[in-house]
Every structure is written in C-alpha cells, then in structure tokens.
C-alpha cells in the first residue's frame, strides 16, 4: 500500500508537470542510447527481483524518457490531451481488472456499454437508438468489423464455406481514407486489389461520380460491389466525404455503406458542425473513436451497427464454457460472442465517467473549441509570409495542412529543385523540435505533394498562445534551412 | 488534483478490501435491477454535467456492484488476481496515455516490448531469441495473427488477390481447443467448415494419428492442409497437446505449426513444468498470455513468430502519414505496420515492471505454487464422497474438473434421469454462490458430459484455506439439491 501511494505521488507530479508549459514535451533519445542505459535506467529483464525502491526509480525513468501526450504543445497525433476524469476512470478500470465478455464478471461495465452505445446510435440518428455495437481495440478493428458484417449480410455462407462461396467482392474507399480498410481487405481474404481507391476533389473528398463509374466498371467485369467506406474526417486533410450522395449510390446498387468516423464522428456532438456528417443516419455501420476528438484516454473506439443481431450472427461460435445458456440471469447481456476477441478490455468506463462529468454539452463545447482553434491557426497563416496552404478554404475538421517555406527557398521558382528541397524541410524542423523537446507536430507527403505539416487539435489544454508558439517555433527552427 | 487524490483513496480502499476474505466476491444484481438504479446509482447519461462529488459516488458505486476479480476466492476465469506492481504499472500506462505504433511517441515502451518479446522467444527456445512478435488485444487476436501469417507464408498472393488465389486451405485444431481458431477461420475467409476438429484422448489431448489421417483425407479431396494449432493448456481440461508428435507431422506435410499457449504458455517459466510444452521450439508461432497464469493485469497477450519479417510482410500497408521513412531515428523501431491495428494500447509496461519486481524466478515460484494448489484440490476431492472426477489422473495444468453429486443423486443409477438432474446441479450451485457472493467458479458441459465444475487457479492470493472454503461452500449449497 505504501508502494502504491508512492507511485501515486510520482503520477500526480507527472500530471501536474504535463500541464506546465515550461516542461519539455519530450526528452528525445535515440533507440541505441536508451538501450545502452542512460543514467542507470536499465531496460533489460533479469532472473532476480529488483527492490521496490528501484521499481519506483524505474517508474520515474519510464515517464522521464517518454513523450508527454497531454502537454498543451503536443499536436503530433489525432489523440492528444490528458483528461483528469478520464484518467481517474482508467485507473479505476485497471483496479477492477475485469473483462467484457460476460455480464457475470462485468455487470456494471456491460450495462454502461449498452447504454452508451445506444446513446451514440441516437446521436447518429438511428430510430430510438436501435441497432447494435461494441467497443473494439481501435478504429482499424472497428473498420474491420464493418467489412466482416457487410460480407455476412450479403453472403452469410462465407462464414461456413469461406470466400470461395462468394463471387469476387469489391470494396470501395477513398484514396485519402485510412489504410485500415485496405488492411481489412487483405486480412479478411478479399485481397488488396479488390479494394478500389476512389478519386477525390482538391479537398480530399470522394467524388461520387467516380464511385459510380467504378461500381459500373466492376459490375461489367462480373464482380460484385459489396461495400463502400465513406470517411468522416480523413487522417491527413480532415475531409468529410459527401455521405448523402454516396448513400444514394449505395441504395441504387444495393451495397453496404460504412462511415469511418474514427476521427470526425465526434463532430456529431456539435450542433454547429454535425452537418458535415449529413446522411450518416443512412449508413449501415459507423466507426467512432471517442479516444480521438473527445479526449477520452486510449483506447476507446466504437463500431455501431444499424441492424440488430448481425454482429452476433457474423461472429458467434457459441462456446459452451463461457456462454452457458443456463445461467440465472438474462444471458442476452453476455456480449462476448459478438466479438472477434474472447477477452475484451473494459474501454467503456472512462468514457462513461467523462460523459457524466461533462454532460453532452461538455463534449460539444470541447469540439467547438478545438475547431475554433484550428480556424485561428488557419487565419493566422493563410496569408503569412513563408507559408503555403496545401488546400484552399477553411478546414472542415481541425486538420490544417501547410508548407513552411524557409527564406532560402522563397525566391526559387516552382520546379524539381524547389520540390526536392521543400520535401526535406518538414522532417528537418520536426527532428529539431523533437531534439529541443519544445513541441511536436506531424508531417507527411500525400500523392504528388511533398512533405507538409499536418496540424491537428484535440487537446482541451491547448490555447491560442500554444498555436502562436508552434508558429514561432517553426520559424525559429526553419529560418536558416 | 484533489479529485485525483480522492479517487486514489477510493481505489486503495477497494484494493485493501479485495484481499480481505470477509469481503464478498460480488454483490449480485440482475440487469434490470441495475438498470432501474439501485440506491440512486443511475447509469443513464445526461446532457448536463454532474458535480465532482457525484462522480466520486459513481466511482464508488461502480466498484460496489462489480466483481472483485482479485479476491482470493474468485476462481471463475483463467485471469484472476490483482498484482500490486502490475496495477501500479497499469496506472502509469494510463497516465502516459500513448500509443505503440511509433518509437516517436512511445520510445521507452517500444523498446520494452522488443526486449520482453526477445526474452519470451528465448524462453520458448528459439536460437538467440530471434524472430518477431507483438502484444495484441488478447489471445483470440494473437491466434488470428498466427493463421494470417501462415497463409502469407505459403500463399503470399492472397494478400493482394484474395482467397480465390489459393486452393482450398485447411486448418486443424483440437475439438477441445479455444473457439478463436474457428473464429479466425470464419473471419479470414477460410470458412468454418475448413477448420477441421481433431479427436482427443480421454484427457483432452490431440491424438496425432487422427491429425495425420485427417491431413491425408483432406489431401485426397484435393485440399491443401496449411496449419495446425496445438494447444498448450486447453480452456476446460487444461490439456497439453503432444507438440513433438504434431511437429513431426507438420514437418512431414510441410505445414505451419502454431502453439496456442494463451493459458499454458506460462508453464515455460517453470523448470518443473515446462516439459509439458516439449517441442514448442519447433513451432512457427506461439500465443502466450501473461494476463492469465502470470497474473499480469488485463490485457497482455503476445504473438511470437519464429521467422523475422513475416509479420511485416503480411500486414504492411506503408501509410506515409504515420511511418515516414525520413525520420531522424532508426525507423525499424516503428512497429505499427506489423499490426492489423493502427493505434495499439500499451500492454507491455505492467508486464515489464512485474518482471523487474519478481524476476524470472518470481514468475516460476508463482506458477509452481498455483500448480501445487491444484494438486492439493485434486487430492482432496478425488476420493471424497459426493465427488466424481471428469478424468482420471493428476491435472496437467491448474484445471481440476469435477462433478459434485448431491446426496439425493448418489443412489440413482447412471442413466438419463441422473444425467438430466446432474446437469442442473452446477448451474444451481453457481447461482447460489453468486447470490451469496462468497465465491465464484466456472462450469460447463463438454461433448457428451453434462455440466461440471472447472476449477482453475491463477491468483497469487489464493491459499489452501480458500480451496477448502470452496469445497465446503459447494457442499453447503449443494447438499439439499
């Protein structure tokens, strides 16, 4: 118990410092440096036990050499921030240390999951919140579920006979969509080449006519178009595909419509921004990750399904040792047979607790505030010297994509030399940021566009001054490149 | 901060009481009772926020109506117990709130995972601990990985072209094995009917001759036998399939050998018991869940792979926005593209910290002790009046399977009536146990055997007196049935 209290002391100190802007975001070291052991921090495992004092030192060192993802100047991922209620929820979850597969051993958590999923389905717009769903270990697995249940809906015999029982099935998703759709296609036996990438407009949104043309072309080849993924909030551009137009096409060709709202689904909480997902209520399934835009600690991802019973039908194996039909309670509350997992981590409690503490209105305020901050950033740099926006127009989500052009490149005409040099700018600035430990922001190329920064905001602790700091820092580090 | 300290107070009180045998294992309520709201515990989510005082009450109530999986008399699942170091590790993990996909945002955790997986591969017996692996969200997903990479090894074109590019592929697994192999077969597009179940001996171990006969039969039909799963520690009987004999057959027919050691893999830590997995070093892949027999908090499951590079080859999609090749550090440390997940929860730290605190020898002692306790139970009841063992001989793992025969059934001759009545005994006793809240133990039917109790021990807090208590409690609750 004394040990637990000392750990708690370490953790509360860490949390306090995380919100202190004078603390570094990270204390960067290369893998070989950490492996060699810095100041006695030894990662190797031994036969003999260490003392509890040494364990406490190990805990401190682990935090010291890690990355403060809750720091107000950490902008590197879609999941940022450290919500105190969520953190308390996750501590309680660890202490309860149970498993979601049966009501028997997780009665409260199972009911919380049911109620929360129903609430989310209501917000999606399904009648009375009807349908089904699960929390899964991340958006990629949620998306994988959507492909599995689409296949089960149209070709249930695949469950028993395998893919050879079905014709050649085609999945469609945007070239800007998350790679998990292609990964699911490969894993589930469709094959990557049967995942057709759709063209997008300059903002990264699927062009519906391209979808229809590709469906027709697949049908002409004798293939069966099965599934369309519409992304609500793409990873890089934050683009929202036009769901209603896509839903029209899915209805016309009798296809499954999935909306990947891992990143953008949370805008449904905002009366101001939810129109960006208009048509989502027409989807057959929706991925929505509260661990991204809603600031819930990792992991917390929901797969929502409009048709009740299909998750169970798709995945059930009826294992007698776990799902006994002769229990004393109503066993329809046992959720395990719907999942591809057996044991399933309790991801619901922290989210439920945050919802209790903030109310629906609290999440709405959080979403609105993050979007205001991104608008602030966009307005600040769109005409600023040395910046070039990757696309025109206000951001749809909090993603702001831009190049920083160092003074040495500003007078070089567009062409191969400039492109090559510009491609190296973001990685260099990022590396310096990490070595200074002052801030972190992502970059990547996209299509024929060379490396650019992708700024995203989901941290409730971030303010305009942190946005200002980021810009100053990019300029400080980049001016002599 | 004050709030966090109050939560901490609630949690430490809970932990203290969990180890107190006068505390109930659970305070059972039916779903409708909890949904109606007991003593003001309201599960519904609202638009408006609740006060922090109410949030603290919610935390207390959540624990109150849950199940104490760390209680010394909780024997219901393979994962039991509450290790204090592991718990501290999980609290730290939640506080760090990061993601395993890149070294960039989880430098320390990524290295801990690498070193720990290497250590586990050394213990499996692969030369210099070479190979690959990942921590995944549970044994079912680890087993799914094994099927995916087996397919990729023999038919890499399936990744691109889908299952139609391969002949009809057959997976083999014991009729006593975990249902996740069949689930993986269904999900990945093989089809459940191409997952052939192998016959077992009276102890639940695969009969190698049956495997060979079924392989030959599949080949005669023109199918391609691809994969054999050998279980090390089955879920119900705790049986260990004869790995060496199975490995001989896999070599002869050029098939992938997977060992599902989700439950039994931990016996590798014990010099006394590891012989039960003899031949495991010949496997191509191994599932091993430290969150079961080693007492690590949920979730912690490893998939180990003998051939380096194949996980990456099977799953990589090379997303530019996450796995930039032009980072300043050695990007081979970015593990995300090996996984079917994108974001991946940090499951390593609690395990690493426990290993530091206990040493390899500490895990060995824990395993040996649990097996001694199960031997104690077996010896206590094997000749006791009113008990009938499901199988003869000492348990291979901590699973002890038995019927309790109430006095009213003892003089009824074996036959349909006795079977029917006996089938109802375990569920009734279990329901009463749960209503009294005194202890919990699992039951299930198996094949033609009616419901029997399956006792398992993985909790470091359990002692002989708790075993004695379980037996007394079964007799107290069952004597008048």
Instruction: Compute the average pLDDT of chain A.
Output: 96
Q: What string, H for helix and E for strand, traces the elements of chain A in order?
A: HHHEHHEHHEHEHEHEEEHHEEHEEH
Distance between the termini of chain A: 54 Å
Class derived from helix and strand content of chain A: alpha/beta
Radius of gyration of chain A: 24 Å
Helix content of chain A: 40-55%
Q: What is the chains' assembly state?
A: homodimer
Q: What shape does the CA trace of chain A take?
A: globular
Brief synopsis:
Chains A, B: GO terms for molecular function: glutamate decarboxylase activity; pyridoxal phosphate binding. By secondary structure, the first copy, chain A, is α/β, with parallel strands linked by helices.
